[in-house]
Amino acid sequence: MTLAARQTRRLESYLCGGWISGQGEGQILCNAATGEAVAHIDSTGIDFAAALDYGRGRAGKALRAMSFHDRAAMLKALGLALMERKEEFYTESYPTGATRSDGWVDIEGGIGTLLSYASKARRELPNTRILTDGDVEVLSKDNSFSAQHILTPLEGVAIHINAFNFPVWGMLEKIAPSLIAGVPCIVKPASQTAYLTELVVRRIVETGILPDGALQLICGGVGDLLDHVTGQDVVTFTGSASTGRRLKSHPAIIGNSVRFTMEADSLNASILGPDAVPGTPEFDLFVKEVAREMTAKAGQKCTAIRRVIATRALVQPLVEALGKRLQGTTVGLPDAEGTRMGPLASLAQRQEVRERIRDLMADAEIVSGNIDAISTTSGDADKGAFLNPVLLYCDRPFEASAVHDVEAFGPVSTVMPYDTIEEAVALSRRGKGSLVASVFTNDPAVAEEAVIGVAPYHGRVMIGNRASVKSSTGHGSPLPGLVHGGPGRAGGGEEMGGMRGVKHYMQRTAVQGVPRLLSAVTGRYIEGADTQSGVHPFRKSLAELKIGDQLITQSRTVTREDVEHFAEFTGDTFYAHMDEAAAKANPFFDDRVAHGYLIASFAAGLFVDPAPGPVLANYGVDNMRFLSPVYFGDTLTVRLTCKEINPRAGADYGEVRWDCRVTNQNDAVVAQYDVLTMVAKTWP
Ligand code: NAP
Questions:
Q1: 108 in ligand 1 pocket by Cβ < 6 Å?
Q2: Helices 68-84 & 86-93, crossing angle to 10 degrees?
Q3: pTM
């Protein structure tokens, strides 16, 4: 279908298990490139309190009944199903002004985030329904009173209010951690580009993969939704600081201490190191990156480089190189061959950006581009929101305020000079808190000073240099495993960051009590909890194994010959094992000691059951500590206790974590660690 032939459709909200239209006239949404009507949006008359109850009720229960791995498998299935439908989303994305490569970031970047959360959750979280957080805190000498922090899913709904620029990614990057946590979502996309979000939600609903009510959608205003939020709900907001502040101070949000995450305006900076002179790979990279950040998504990216901070001596060549590159950026219809940059999201948005550029001109002059005369290779600049990239230069950035305060949310950046790294850092901090900064340098001293200087004011800092050219994901890409958010002006929020983001939707609770009952709560063996022995635990399949199954082994005495044999055999002839005088001179030892790895090897020799059985492999150890020296003649005993059982969904085995404690003849613990094994679900 061509853009011109598109039909206007009436967007619907998906709430309380069905698609509903608003009862009002609604607002017409126009194609960013042609000005033609694309859709009507309206949510008048919708019962938002009922939608909240719907999510909190059945959907919340269904999600919480699933384990982290079940929810990860659900996200994976959803991501794969959406990926199959991606071409339809690209077609719907063009009217937003996005080119194919802008769409790639939004659509495939969004689906990739779902898939990445699915795989990280499976790898990094246990297959349980609650999480433990940190170590057990022992609170009594006789081990009768301890504490464990746990995380449980909040029982409300996560309301995600999103900006217009990433209608797919904006939704998926937020629902991924919420759903992994077990919290249902209500998504409210920005009206301007909601038709693309609505289409994706339609396809999600059609897959039937999510439990009923786990994802609801509001197309249009949110009405009185926020009047009904409680302390179990979470509100996340991405958009302008002014709207964010208004929502954050909503009486129900303040009154009920509702978690509120805000991602707002950001005047992100990029610093060109003094070593990155013309002719170096870093200079070329910097020019490329700044131009890319200015033009990708027509500069409508919260992470785009708005302030370009360069050594005074490099300003002239930098402005020339950047100007040349920006002037070569073809602007036109997003789906036309050869277009590098599409239009802004709407004519109103273009008007807004022009006004903001005029504000910037109080401090800076335009050195490349023109805000009035527009040059396009296709499309009509009167009907479509086209704007060519605009580069400004501010000669006295320490005396300026607009360049550090005004966000022109389009293809606009300001170059400003510095004389010392300290000044470059100080300039970046004038943004009062941003999502991301970058530093382009090949000099470790510059990297250290600049990164440590800018870090307190930023959520992410990227170092660009020649060695990471091919692998770097660039200044502007938020990644699922990394924190996205920034302090101060950027909203003070934090999203994603891998499993950190999941925990934003969970309640951390300190649980105190006797280890036996703490262990029952967490499903994990805790020192002091009940144990049982009998059949060797390595003879038990996952179906038979229980937390607390324990083996106390035979003993073994460590001899001088053992240590010397191990030293010669492995090549580890470190003096503490081999040289009596040197060992005695060491502050930790009274004599020659056994190798830690010899102790671990002897421990394995004591606890394994050698015959083929349900234990399939040992895949590692965690938290290994050698706590007291082992001297010749010491006798070791091992206590191995089943600590955690994680059946793996879709496989016929699971992971078992064993608490392994090695003691000497005086009952002193000489080594302590977790042994990690794969165990068959059934055997034989
Ligand atoms: P906006 O006008 O503040 O709108 C953001 C969202 O808030 C939209 O969904 C909007 O819905 C909704 N909204 C507006 N008034 C509301 C109210 N009274 N109650 C509930 N929801 C309300 O921002 P925008 O123009 O869409 O986005 C541009 C801004 O977002 C830029 O300043 C940019 O820096 C920022 N941004 C930040 C990030 C980040 O991650 N930090 C990412 C992208 C964009 P309607 O559209 O229906 O009004």
A1: no
A2: 70
A3: 0.91
